[in-house]
């Protein structure tokens, strides 16, 4: 039933009621029996009330899932106030809008390197990472934390994400985490544009992230910059050298030639983007780049900071993970006390492992963080409950659908569940059954699966009025017994054509029986006599038998101008005043018909027998 109708009934049925119960939170979907639990009423009481509200019988079943609007209306009927799920939001954490432009400070660009396999992404990242160590005071061994920053001579910095290009970029973009400001597209000048180059271009374009091209392997013979330029043009990437707006820098990851120019190009692009973030007096916000368990450190996660400053002791929430920052270190292994926008730091202190792509938000204190985690967990639980309910409803509907639509106006369907020894035979059986039938009857396969018939198959078959075809299987006695109890047919076969014959017979038996009429005798109505039976007067047809004979119990039809005007039975057959069983050709008799007196002189009365026509597909 429609929501408006329910609303109408609810409005008109509820007297002014005072809400007395403590409020409940309704998920997006809830089953009828779960709603009964939540409302603390018996299922029977709830379904009764629902029927009164105008819900259909099927909508009051235990497993039927109600959407939040419906459940709210019903709950109101029981005086139970509802707290909307959105009220959970007030305990959650959300990214803060940027303050006044004047309070924003320039931040380093965040760069992802993408490109075709073997074109030099890793080599470029290695070169950049090594150069970052060399130029660091506390130089040491770099640790892989998923991102690192390269300080430049100019004092500026670039942060590179160094998880495998495509995967990281895509998974984060899918989660709505647009972390990257610029894509460096590595194209080997020896090979030029390749399929993954095009893919990377498309990803960057979709995400509206500008590209800087790094033409690698220019130290090798065969490097052809013009070809790369033209091939990129064919992909609508117009390089500056031919008047476009995309910067391209020839580099060698082996000699390091061109790499500082590439850094300059990235900075120039970043300047155009005018990347700025709030730093002071703003909660720290960022993204999880990687997370793992580290021996001696517990759960660690790399946080790429976009806004604010992260400090030891800060409280963070990412997804449903909570962290009181115990320690931080850079990709160069340098411990950090404070990290600002554009920095990637490995953070210790996570209670549980967050996921790459989770947004990181700072909470003012641990209570606020805990509440946020709580509401997020509640939301996830509600979502998964809703998903389960929706799935359950779908399968319920499917079963109901299959049982109710077994007989459609146009075609009757034999519902079948096929169980077979191997998938090949399950497929073969379903293929053959699917092809059976005609425009009036056919087979609907609810399931074709491998393995013996289960209790679930039996209950499903019962609900859907289906036959279970079991092919080449030994079924358990318990299941066979259960099927017998529930009058479910398990048709067992080892030979496929016998199975097909069985299904064919079942289909044939579903066809309507059509009959031919064999005329046994014929009479003409020659006069109409009124007779008195008790206090009633009724008309009787005076007939003469012109052909064959007419018996008292024969099926009778009356024809007028060759059209059947009556089809039924005699209520009496008399010769003179005597009841008689049969009158033969040439004799006169009086006939009265069951519920029919509208006959006329000249009508033809025929006695007939119904002969069923043979049925076949
Ligand atoms: N001569 C030369 N060799 C390079 C250059 N860049 C990369 N190589 C070599 O090319 C091969 C592939 O380089 P990688 O950096 O592993 O390429 P990749 O794009 O990271 O490859 P995947 O990770 O497999 O996608 C390696 O043998 C590198 O040494 C370059 O600029 N010049």
Automatic annotation (TrEMBL):
Known function: One of the essential components for the initiation of protein synthesis. Protects formylmethionyl-tRNA from spontaneous hydrolysis and promotes its binding to the 30S ribosomal subunits. Also involved in the hydrolysis of GTP during the formation of the 70S ribosomal complex.
Location relative to the cell: Mitochondrion
Protein name, entry field: Translation initiation factor IF-2, mitochondrial
The organism's taxonomic lineage, starting at the top: Eukaryota, Fungi, Dikarya, Ascomycota, Saccharomycotina
Annotated InterPro entries: EF-G-like_DII, IF2_II, P-loop_NTPase, Small_GTP-bd, T_Tr_GTP-bd_dom, TF_IF2_bacterial-like, TIF_IF2, TIF_IF2_dom3
A Gene Ontology cellular-component term: mitochondrion
Residue ranges annotated for the Tr-type G domain, each copy included: 106-279
Molecular function (Gene Ontology), one example: GTP binding
Family to which this protein belongs: Belongs to the TRAFAC class translation factor GTPase superfamily. Classic translation factor GTPase family. IF-2 subfamily.
Keywords associated with the record: GTP-binding, Initiation factor, Mitochondrion, Nucleotide-binding, Protein biosynthesis, Transit peptide
Broad class of the protein's primary localization: mitochondrion
Pfam families, per database record: EF-G_D2, GTP_EFTU, IF-2
Transit peptide keyword on record: yes
GO biological process, one term: mitochondrial translation
